[in-house]
Amino acid sequence: MANALARLRDSDIWWSFKRSPITVLSAIVALVCIVTSVAAPLIAPHNPFDLATLNLLDAFKPPAWVAEGEADYLLGTDDQGRDVLSAILYGARISLLVGFAATIFAAFVGVSVGLLAGFLGGTVDALLMRIADIQLTFPSILVALLVDGIVRAAVAREVHDQIALFVVIVAIGISEWPKFARPVRGSTMVERNKEYVLAARVIGVSSFRIMTGHVLPNVLGPVLVIATLNLGLAILSEATLSFLGVGVPPTQPSLGTLIRIGNDFLFSGEWWITIFPGIALVVMVLSVNLLGDWLRDALNPRLR
């Protein structure tokens, strides 16, 4: 472990990271978002989803620094009397969970498809890439809505509410896998003709072992960058689905759900219900995207 940390401190990536104040700030903000979301049950002032603690008399209280605000509700309350700050902390957990899980799922599917298409070539390559091309012609959010709609039509409403989180993850993952497949396919087509692959074939190594044990480690470079950039898009896609009312159920509201709830009261003067969750979403996605931009440049040998 100590040797790994020492190599990291001496690497070009760490040097590039230290010399970019925006990247350092983005990493700190992203880390704070993740830590506060994971530790929400410990640091949140209230449990906004415990019905026994809610009081409708506390509804629509403004932030603490505004007249009629209370110190117990730093960012105010919503129409149900829920503390907005606590709701943001709990909602960010759902947004981050969906974002990470959907990105991992999309990366798994995309890398697998790209590896098969690039290594086998021929008809398999043409078929898989045409499927990717067709999907790329549709907006990602439209594909996610289609998948969610199919599941809603296929199962009962009670069952859908129980598996809604899983459905959102799969829907977003399916809509994003071509972004991983095409770069991996291109890198695999280059690697499959190199000497180490030809030598492995000569000694009788199976195609599956060559793909997974030899080619795969050498084509994963761009995947990390794509995954970092795609994480922000996945969080935005989940927020969009929840804002449209087809995301996670109201009993497990994410940031998108909180924004949708607050949007109903935005023009009646209760601006804090939607503004603060919106700011939290923007800050979270922006920090992740800035990290992705830096990582793309840091791993590009032409920019060193």
From TrEMBL:
Segments passing through the bilayer: 21-44, 94-120, 215-236, 271-295
Topology of the protein relative to the lipid bilayer: Multi-pass membrane protein
Keyword Heme among record annotations: no
Any Pfam family the entry gives: BPD_transp_1
Main location: membrane
Keywords carried by this UniProt record: Cell membrane, Membrane, Transmembrane, Transmembrane helix, Transport
Subcellular location(s) of the protein: Cell membrane
UniProt domain ABC transmembrane type-1: residue ranges: 92-292
GO cellular component: plasma membrane
Gene Ontology biological process terms in this record: transmembrane transport
Similarity comment: family membership: Belongs to the binding-protein-dependent transport system permease family.
Name assigned to this protein: ABC transporter permease
